[in-house]
Predict the structure.
Amino acid sequence: MPDLRVLDLFCCSGGAGWGYHLAGYAVDGCDIANRPRYPFAYHRGDALDYLGHLIHTGDIERYILVHASPPCQAGCALTVGTNHSQGWGGTHEDLVAPTRALLDRTGLPYVIEQPNGRAKIRKDLTLCGEMFGLGVLRHRNFELGRWATPQPPHPRHRGYVRGHRHGVRRDGPYVAAYGKGGGKATIPEMQAAMGITWTDVHEELTEAIPPVYTRWIGTAFLTARQEVFA
């Protein structure tokens, strides 16, 4: 289906992009950092500037869907929880609102992805690794613009995330795919748990979402689109 092309903004190493690829889409990514391991066509630059350029030139019409994972460290659970209580961290920029404003200008269906926390998005969809039998939990929330799909059931977690937390060491069926030390996952463990093989960069793995999430979303979007045009 040649019209299935998704724009992957703030793409990092391509966790989201790979899921859309598995769902049958062609993928174009954009990130401000150099991402030599990104597995698809890639534009290095400011994602919002690039999106504005695509809107201005009309090239945005190449896409059927836009996915955006804007940084919102100011609202993530770690920042507002542990880091805040310990006096760690600094000032973080919230790009969710300006991202949404530009996405609305495209006229296209879109997906905004954020971790758990206080990011100001509608939680139209929440996905968890346990829904897909993964070795991580990695809850992620998604705001769906100009389309909708039912929330799948969220099964009960099978146990703890392995590692140290608040002075307590626990074992469990999931690994902690963030940080270092304290029983956190190794790079091979993160790769295996999330289904990511094309990068072994620690920072990229800790920020990635499991591709199975966007494979599910991409498939759900096609189902919703077919129902509209049926």
